[in-house]
Amino acid sequence: MTSISQLRTAVVIGSTRTVRLGRGVAEWVAADPNPDLDLEVVDLAEMDLPLLDEPEPPAWGNYAHETTRAWSAVIGGFDAFVLVTPEYNHSTSAALKNALDHLYAEWADKAVAFVGYGIEGGTRAVEHLRAICSELAMAGVGPQVSLRLGDDLPDGRCAPREAQVAARGRMLAALARWGGALRPLRSTPELLGDETRPALERPELRPHAAAAVDQLVADLQAGLDGADADRYDASFAADVLWGSPYGVTLTGTDDLLPVHRSLMAARAAPPSRFEVVELRAPLPGIAIAHVRRQALDETGEGFSEMALYVLVEREGRWWLAAGQNTPIAAPSR
Ligand SMILES: Cc1cc2nc3c(=O)[nH]c(=O)nc-3n(C[C@H](O)[C@H](O)[C@H](O)COP(=O)(O)O)c2cc1C
């Protein structure tokens, strides 16, 4: 059973062939008694991942395919990894590279160790993997295991020499150290309710969320400038929840759009400038923003308000799910 302090560690079998050495090697790795790691074999062959066909870059975390979501749930649940790779033509397997390419945030800020095997120990495969993992923001530990087919995998059996058992121990000890050190960078469910509060922001999602908020602000600005309520409301979801500055809750565009139309027709708001003050991107497809709207009158003391907006991405388009407007009596900077 995993203890709270153990790192949940996936030992990923990098070979998907029906007849393979990879499973035996992964099981040998997972048999190490390291007390700081809860080692679990993960078999790529059971995940049935197709060749990568996600419409959006995986770093955005917005997965279209059920197979990717299932893989994301598996990998997202681990704190650290041991990648067990065969050497195919002086590199890692296409299956492992494909599996790595499918995700991003689920790998990032986690420690990774490498076990290579092949005629000469699989070291060239591991070198390539190290470069790939570094691009995925993983921390690759130095000590590694290199199993030679003739010496450590005789007759298709996984029976590594004594020195390899020691190398496995050194590698996993390094993985436990780095995996533990990286804990504060990850907001995992186990941190909830512990002394540490999780920071929900996921930096890799921020650029995508920021572009969505910029688009919303551009619509609001153009709508107000042109007294065009349809442009102003262009990205409001049908069931948008809207808190007015006067304590009224409006539910849905049927309630909200007539109000905006009449305010626009009356040119109730003076010329104003919208500006994004802060942003949070806690999950794929969710953006939360604080947006200031400041009147452009000469005194600078005209109508201004702060709005909290929640945007949700649905099938590649962002929608305003909720907004709350708070008037500010005087500009506060
Ligand atoms: C497509 C292919 C390419 C290979 N290329 C290499 C290689 O470059 N270097 C090496 O040491 N072994 C190479 N081998 C031999 C593998 O190390 C050996 O077949 C091993 O069992 C593969 O791991 P697996 O059984 O878990 O798939 C290759 C094997 C295959 C199938």
Give a verbal description of the structure:
With 333 residues, the chain is α/β, with parallel strands linked by helices. It has two domains: 7-191, Flavodoxin domain (Rossmann fold, 3-Layer(aba) Sandwich); 203-328, Nuclear Transport Factor 2, Chain: A. 32% of the residues lie in helices and 27% in strands. The chain is built from ten helices and twelve strands. It has helices at 22-30, 44-47, 66-76, 94-101, 123-135, 149-152, 162-181, 206-225, 229-232, 253-265; strands at residues 7-13, 37-43, 80-86, 111-118, 139-140, 145-148, 236-243, 249-251, 272-283, 286-295, 304-314, 317-328. The strands form two sheets. Strands 1, 2, 3, 4, 5 and 6 form a six-stranded parallel beta sheet that branches. Strands 8-7-12-11-10-9 form a six-stranded mixed beta sheet, covered by helices on one side. It is elongated. The two termini are 52 Å apart. It binds flavin mononucleotide (FMN). Flavin mononucleotide binds at residues 15, 17, 20-22, 86-90, 118-120.
Features:
Rossmann fold; binds flavin mononucleotide; alpha/beta; 6-stranded mixed sheet; 12 strands; 10 helices; Nuclear Transport Factor 2, Chain: A; 2 domains; 333 residues; 27% strand
Low-confidence region ranges: 188-194
Largest sheet, strands/sense/barrel: 6 strands, parallel
Bound molecules: flavin mononucleotide
DSSP helix fraction: 25-40%
